[in-house]
Amino acid sequence: MHAAQGSIIPGLFKVSRRIGFGECDAARIYKTPRAIDIAVEALDAWFEAVLGFSWATLVNGHDLDLSFVRIACQYLRPVTAGQTLEVGIRVVKSEPTAITFTATAETDGDHPCFRVTLVTSFISRTTMVAIPIPAKFSHKIEQYQSACLDQGQAPQGGHHVVLSAEPQGQVDPNRFTLQMNPTGVPFVQQHRIVYGECGLSGKVYPPRVFDMALEAVGEWYLRIIGISWLQQCINLQGQPFVDINCRYLRDMHPGTLLSIVVKVKHLGAASIVYSVVGYDDSGSPCFDAQLAACYIDETSGVYKPTPFPEDYRRRILEYQARCRVDD
What is the pTM of this model? Predict the structure, then answer.
C-alpha cells in the first residue's frame, strides 16, 4: 500500500499517488489491476474526507460495509514507475441504495491515464443485504454530486476500443457443470481464496479479483497459444488491456476454491475480449469479468497495434470453436 495525499479543491476531491517500482511488471508499465487498487484507495480517502468516516470505521464502528456491485476501467495511457498521478473522485449517480463513482487518474498536464467506474452500495453486516444510504451521508453525497456537475463531466481523451457487449444479466450457474469435462475445454484455472486477499469485512478485497482474472488469462495464453506473457515482453510484443469490466455476484471468503473459466468472446484483427467467470465449489458464479486487450508490437520503440500472428489466430479460433461445441 502506498500513502496517498488527499485534498478537496472546489467541487472535487483529489488524491496524489506515486507509482512504485514494485507495481510494474516486465512490460515496464504498471500492472493492469493496480489501477483498480489506486481507484479504491482514492475512494476510501474520499469517504473519510467528505463523509467523515473511513471504510474501516464503517465496518468496525457502525456495523456497515461498502459493497461493490461492478467495477470497470478504461485504460487511456501507459503509466510507469516514478510517475505521480492525481486521482479525482466524482459522484455520477446516487440512488436510494447505490452510488456510482468515477475515479479519473491524470498526469503530465491533465492527460487522463485511466478512468475507473465503481458501483457501490451500503450493506448491513447483520443482514448482509443492501440498505438505503444512511441519512447522515446522503445529504453530503448529494452536495458533492452537485459540485461535480458544476465542474462538468470527467475529462475525455486517450484511446478506447469499443466492442459490442452481450446484455448484462446473471450468469447461469448450470453452465459451469456442463463446461467441466475431460477435454480441458473450456480452460479452467483453480484458485483458493487466502486470508491475505481479504479485508476487514472478511471477504475478498475487490481489486484482488482482477489479479485472479489476469492470472487465469495468462495461464490460458501459455496453455492454448504456447507462449508466456513474459516471453512476449522479451520479444517486444504484448497484449495490454484497454477495457476491463467485472460484476460481483457473490461474496468470496477465505478458503473458497474458485474454478475460473476463460473463454474468448471476441477476436478482431488486433483486439481480443476474454470472458472470465469465477465459480465456487457449488457451481455458483461469484464474479463475471470481461477483459478487452490489444495485441501490440513495440520493436519500433512505441506501442503499436498489430494483427495477431497467424498461428496465434488459428489456435484462438480453434479454441473458440471447441468451446461452442461443448456449450
Answer: 0.84
How big is the chain, counted in residues?
Answer: 327
Give, as one character, the DSSP assignment of residue 127.
T
CB-hemisphere CA count at 13 Å for 10? 3
The whole-angstrom distance between residue 279's C-alpha and the CA centroid of its chain comes to 17
How much of the chain is helix, strand and coil, in % rounded to 5? 30, 35, 35
Q: Which amino acid is at 37?
A: D
The dihedral of CA 14, 19, 20, 24: what is its sign? positive
pLDDT tens digit sequence for 275-317: 999 999 999 999 999 999 999 987 776 678 899 999 999 999 9
Question: Could you tell me where in the chain the CATH 3.10.129.10 domains are found?
Answer: 5-151, 174-326
Cα separations (Å) of 186 from 190, 220, 246? 13, 10, 20
124-139 pLDDT, tens digit per residue, is 988 889 999 888 888 8
Specify whether domain 174-326 bears CATH 3.10.129.10: yes
Q: Cα–Cα distance between 295 and 231 in angstroms, integer?
A: 14
User: In the 3-class helix/strand/coil scheme, how is 144-190 assigned residue by residue?
Assistant: HHHHHHHHCCCCCCCCCCCCCCCCCCCCCCHHHHHHCCCCCCCEEEE
Q: What is the rounded distance in angstroms from the CA atom of residue 169 to the CA atom of residue 162? A: 20
95: which 3 cell numbers? 440512488
User: Residue 286, class by beta-carbon neighbours within 10 Å (0-12 exposed, 13-18 middle, 19+ buried)?
Assistant: buried
CATH number, span 5-151: 3.10.129.10
C-alpha–C-alpha distance, residues 260 and 189, integer Å: 5
Grid cell for residue 205? 478485497
Q: What 3-state DSSP class applies to 25?
A: coil
Q: Are strands 296-297 and 304-305 parallel, antiparallel or unpaired?
A: antiparallel
